[in-house]
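User: Can you predict the 3D structure for this chain?
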Amino acid sequence: MPVWLPSIIDVEASGFGANSYPIEIGVVRSDGARYCKLIKPLSDWLHWDKEAEALHGIRREVLLTHGLDAVEVCHELNQFLHNEQLYSDA
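Assistant: Here is the predicted structure, written as structure tokens:
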């Protein structure tokens, strides 16, 4: 009997509150394919929580240097997921 595996998404954020924004997206699809990208903060995404940084270990400077444009990440995710149902711990 085949084993069903869920597709999982994990999002790291700039903080813990309503003003936070996504800084990293990771997905493992049910077929094992993986996607992970850092997201460059938009110009009005200013909230940064040092306590959150201590947990995820990603510095804002790294995002500004190596992150991808948020809209580009959205387009890539849409193509990667093909209407896949995702599960998250949140």
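DSSP finds three helices and five strands in the chain. Residues 70-81 form the longest helix (12 residues).
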